Every structure is written in C-alpha cells, then in structure tokens.
Amino acid sequence: MVLRWRKKRVLFIIAVCSIAWICLRFQSLYCSERKGMEILRVLCSEYQKNRTSGNMCEIICKDDIHLTCNGFHGGKSVVLKAKTGSNIFIIKSSSSSLHDVEAWNPDFDQYDLLATLEAKLRIDFPDSSTERIFDYFHAYDLTSPVIRNDLWNLANDHEFVLSLMLETLELFPRILGHCGTLFAVEYVDTLNNFKYNNSSIVIAKKIAEFFIHVRDDTEKLYLCDVKPSHFGESVNGIWKYVDLDAVLSYDILARNIKLRSSCTTDLDCSYFDCVFLCNKNTKQCGKSMVTSNVQIICKNIFIGGFWLGRGLLEMHKSTLIRDTLLQCINDSAFTEEDLINALSAIEG
What we know:
The protein is α+β, with helices and mostly antiparallel strands and 348 residues long. Helix content is 44%, strand content 17%.
C-alpha cells in the first residue's frame, strides 16, 4: 500500500513538472502584447529624441495604432499584428531592447558587409539580390551613428536580410521598412485561420508549387520549422512562408549539425524538421540529409498532428490521397512534381 502510494506521488510530481514545463515553454513562444507595447513605447520615445531612425517610425508611432498578438514565435522577441487606419502589417524584431548588438564599425564598407552576410547565410546571391540590401542601406545617411547602428542591428537579423535579398522571388513577406531594431513586413493570412473545405487540394497544390520555386530559385534553401501558422496567402493571392528564422542554406545547416558531439539515431542530428543521417559506426552526424522539403510539408502541413493542428488534407477520405501522402513521407525520391501530379489526378 505504501509503495503504491509513493508510486502515485512520483507520477503526480512528474505530471505537475511536465505541465509546468509546457506552460513555461508556451509562455516563451507565445506573443506578449504587453511586452511588445513596452518595446514600442520605448522605441517611439527614442525616435522623438532622435536616438533611433527608420522609414516606418512615423507610422509605427501613431497614436491610433492598434497591436494584437500574431501567434507563436520562437526566434523573435517581437511579433505583432499592427493596424493603423486601413493599413495592416506585421512588426518583428529579434532584439528585446533597442541597442543590444554591437555598433557598426565606422570602417566597415559595403564589400565587408557583403562578405559578412555571405558568410552567415552561405548562399551565393545573384548581383540583383545583393544590390537590393545595399540600395536599402544607402537610402539612409550612413554618416549618422544612430542610423548606422540601426542598420547594423538589421544586418544581424537573419529574417530581415533573407527577406530583403530574396524579395524579387516573392517567396516571403515583403519588407515594408523599419524603425530602430523593429522591421515591418506585409500581412499574410496564414493557414491556421483557414476554413477547411473542398478547396484544400487547390491550396495544397499551390504550396507544392511554392516549394518548387524554393528548390529551383534558391541555393539549397531548407525550411526547417514548417507548420500551418507559417504558411499563408498575401493580399495579391501569392502563397508565402512567414517565419524565416529556421530557413537556412544546406551549408549552414550541415555546419551546425557537424558540431554535435555524437549521435545514436538520426534524430540526434536534427534541427527542427531537418534531419541528417547519423553514422552508426562513428556515432557522428554525416552530411547526407534524410528529410526533404516535400517530405516535411506532407507530414506537417497536409497530415498535421497534435502540436501542429489539423492537416490541410486530413479530412479527405480518398484512399489515393492517403497513399500519396504516405509515399511522400517515406519515399526519399518523391518530388514536388510527383505530389502535384497526384493531387491533380485526385482533383480531376
């Protein structure tokens, strides 16, 4: 009897600790309107004192701006939906304070900046892409220490840089501008707001087409944190991916995975949804990936799960859809084109 009571007490303590951990985890991921408003209040105060800059400051610091949380976020200190008048956009920042990264070195020229960005992202951007970020920076008075610091903060934000450099591809929300360490992007209505109906297959095909563009138009870019809240449709009907903190090149992924001390399974060599092969003999993570972008969308977007929510194609009873998705997940040779062809056949 005593042993049984102790066992129940241990199980109870484990359950309480698990619930507490989950609550803390959600608190760290979930948007805080109060925190965002406080950062915005300090930012606008600094702007009025000419201690920060940006083309969005006048808009962001309006009295009539209305802010609401924009769901879960893991890599950002601020993710808020902003509305002022008829304008709706998203405010983001990786910084929890206005000036928490080192200042731009006054001797740092555009060629040093390009080298730094390429080293970080490990992507050979076409000339037009690199010009895009330099055009953005040189639209400002770089002799001002305040402006240099603000832009250097943004140059250290992975999502800002990637969005700006790949803007012409229309894969990610368009950068509208910045104010200090905050930057604004176009609003995209995400899949977690979508009402599931007969158009699900049409949307699934558009998402598959999106990944064809990622594969063909970028240098081995992988989306490693795929979920319904990260995909959406812009006002002009283009499907885009909205959270770029875990969008990485193969080179930077492989480098980070290689730093793992040892592995016993492939999951020990994973970064969110991106998984590399574990060499069972050497117990080291290898260079080969065991997951692809198309496998990840089939599993996380089309099938779904407890943490991900309902899958886009979950409600379809077609045996062909179920067989297609299972093949997509388990067959490494399955391509985006195979997925589109199968969906088109189902669509009729």
